[in-house]
Structure to design on (655 residues):
């Protein structure tokens, strides 16, 4: 059962936080607030699912925020300036993102470079490329964007399950299925446990690594599409620092940054907790937004300390002679 | 230990050559690049500008290189800069300079101590441990400035940005002094050797009697101190503190400078001088792009290309290939 302890702790923290907000503000406990929580954090949720795969495999992807920014600028230029139909532009950018992620994965695998610095270069490159495309914010007026914005599942009481929220939920469910119920998912865990042992067990480490970074970049592309739907524009400076939020969401959700352990659902709750802090500050009205950063930092610390404690306990319980890696 | 008081950098010709090449390229795009004139008792010119603008990253890289050599990383230096700058700017007009500096540098020391304890005592991975302060630090800085951009008029603190020491801008002299001080502390004693030993194999070093825990904490504290100094310099430069943007993304530049300086992210051998050369390379590129009239947007792309080139040059796979080819040609 100790396996699910961090997940349970994260969920309890979210529920307690929501309860505290509901007591502080009478209007908080409504379906509308919950649905807005999903919509406002849709792009973060999508990108955090990809980050969970990367972190469980023992890597890190710092380029996702820049890829989101590039995607929004690319979409705005392709749809508004080049006249490409939005759906075709979506397909095109996802292919570009897949290639980009595969290239980073290949550099990490075949040149034996640290993921941290390869994806850092990837971040510079993607952000620089979007600056080159355009430095100003470009509005997107395509009819599809207006349609998608209107097209929401109305749940009564002003609550709307929007298209971005639906995409996010689909990605979370799909990501959970991929990670927990497929061979690829098992390989991801194996890589995070020990790359050497995984290779000795006959896992194609190279192909799995490339696939993981491809997945992360594609999900960043999807998040970029959702972000452009959400803001109806493309801007090269959008989603700056989102990679940190995504890493924080994964860690708060119980994923070990050393790899080999984590759940997609935990990351989802981690995203919701960050969203909850923002919503609380909005509701309060007197608190400044910098409290969100401090609160996220404190939560990060609390969860990391909790992880260390559970790891310590788990190590002690092991029979003598078995050492941790 | 007395046999090797100061060791010369074992490698470094490629970094110095790269710096000279970039400076030469800057000279090609802007012929007055090397012109230096004396005005109001202070030197001016593009070259001085490269040194002056490169000082904050060079200061950061002095601390970062030790942390990286210990197989760690400090993501929080940008946030620590913001905190130190915010403290310095808020106190500058009401307190004397020693108090201001002591408060700002003390904050940096505390931040470094926090990181060091998380890494060395609690055994948290460096990326995660310093991520906490990176996320929360900017919030703390904004708490200090109350969300405003705090400005000051105190001439004593402003001297760090606009004064001069023997004609040189104070940030340059300060960086040089810190470089010499770090060199004396680290290379003048066995400390540097112990740091390299711990970075290469922490377990073996601990078994051999190296106080790895204390040394780890000390390197993070030093990194915090260097970051605080960089924060004071940055605040003095603009006569104010902007908690949102001071030191933003500079942690990445500092790590880049360390990597360009030939220190492996996997720990072990390090070079303080080459890390500073790395910082100057980055700044010379930035200045060059500005001088050449290219849009500043290309800056990031050029930076990415340089990172990739340096990485590939350091890649174990490629160097294996190079050794192989060399063996064949013989």
């Amino acid at each position: 059962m100790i396996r699910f302890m961090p997940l349970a702790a994260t969920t309890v923290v979210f529920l307690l936080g929501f309860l505290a907000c509901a007591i502080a503000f009478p209007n908080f406990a409504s379906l509308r607030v919950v649905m807005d929580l999903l919509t406002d954090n849709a792009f973060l949720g999508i990108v955090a699912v990809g980050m969970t795969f990367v972190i469980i495999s023992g890597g890190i992807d710092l380029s996702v925020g820049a890829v989101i920014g590039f995607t929004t600028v690319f979409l705005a230029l392709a749809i508004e300036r080049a006249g490409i139909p939005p759906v075709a532009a979506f397909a095109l950018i996802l292919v570009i993102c897949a290639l980009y992620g595969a290239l980073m994965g290949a550099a990490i695998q075949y040149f034996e470079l640290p993921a941290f610095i390869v994806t850092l270069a990837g971040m510079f490159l993607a952000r620089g490329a979007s600056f080159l495309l355009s430095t100003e914010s470009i509005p997107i007026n395509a009819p599809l964007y207006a349609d998608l914005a209107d097209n929401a599942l109305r749940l009564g009481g002003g609550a709307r399950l929007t298209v971005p929220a639906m995409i996010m939920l689909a990605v979370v469910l799909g990501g959970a299925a991929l990670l927990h119920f497929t061979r690829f998912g098992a390989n991801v865990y194996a890589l995070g446990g020990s790359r050497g042992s995984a290779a000795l067990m006959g896992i194609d480490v190279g192909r799995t690594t490339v696939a993981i970074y491809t997945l992360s970049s594609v999900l960043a592309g999807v998040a970029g599409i959702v972000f452009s739907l959400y803001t109806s524009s493309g801007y090269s400076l959008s989603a700056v620092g989102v990679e940190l939020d995504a890493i924080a969401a994964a860690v708060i959700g119980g994923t070990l940054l050393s790899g080999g352990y984590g759940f997609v659902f935990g990351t989802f709750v981690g995203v919701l907790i960050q969203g909850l802090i923002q919503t609380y500050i909005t509701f309060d009205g007197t608190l400044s937004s910098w409290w969100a950063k401090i609160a996220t930092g404190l939560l990060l610390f609390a969860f990391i300390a909790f992880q260390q404690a559970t790891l310590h306990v788990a190590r002690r319980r092991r029979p003598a002679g078995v050492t941790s890696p | 230990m007395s046999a090797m008081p100061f060791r010369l950098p074992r490698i470094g010709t490629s970094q110095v050559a790269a710096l000279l090449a970039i400076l030469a390229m800057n000279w090609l795009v802007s012929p007055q690049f090397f012109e230096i004139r004396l005005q109001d008792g202070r030197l001016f010119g593009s070259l001085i500008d490269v040194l002056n603008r490169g000082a904050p990253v060079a200061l950061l890289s002095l601390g970062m290189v030790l942390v990286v050599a210990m197989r760690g990383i400090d993501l929080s230096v940008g946030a620590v800069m913001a905190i130190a700058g915010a403290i310095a700017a808020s106190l500058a007009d009401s307190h004397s300079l020693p108090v201001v500096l002591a408060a700002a540098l003390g904050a940096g020391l505390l931040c470094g101590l926090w990181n060091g304890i998380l890494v060395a005592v609690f055994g948290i991975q460096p990326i995660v441990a310093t991520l906490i302060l990176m996320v929360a630090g900017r919030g703390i800085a904004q708490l200090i400035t109350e969300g405003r951009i705090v400005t000051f008029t105190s001439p004593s603190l402003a001297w760090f940005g606009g004064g001069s020491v023997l004609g040189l801008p104070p940030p340059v002299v300060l960086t040089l002094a810190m470089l010499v001080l770090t060199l004396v502390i680290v290379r003048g004693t066995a400390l540097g050797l112990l740091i390299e030993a711990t970075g290469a194999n922490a377990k073996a070093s601990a078994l051999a009697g190296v106080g790895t825990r204390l040394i780890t904490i000390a390197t993070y504290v030093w990194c915090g101190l260097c970051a605080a100094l960089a924060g004071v310099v940055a605040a003095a430069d603009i006569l104010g503190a902007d908690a949102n943007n001071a030191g933003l993304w500079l942690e990445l530049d500092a790590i880049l400078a360390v990597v360009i300086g030939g220190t492996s992210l996997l720990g072990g051998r390090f070079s303080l001088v080459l890390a500073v050369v790395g910082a100057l390379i980055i700044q010379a590129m930035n200045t060059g792009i500005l001088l050449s009239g290219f849009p500043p947007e290309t800056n990031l792309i050029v930076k990415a290309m340089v990172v990739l080139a340096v990485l590939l040059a350091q890649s174990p796979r490629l160097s294996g290939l190079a050794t192989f080819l060399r063996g064949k040609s013989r």
About this structure: The first helix of chain B runs from residue 13 to 29. Residues 67 and 124 of chain B are 14 Å apart (CA to CA).
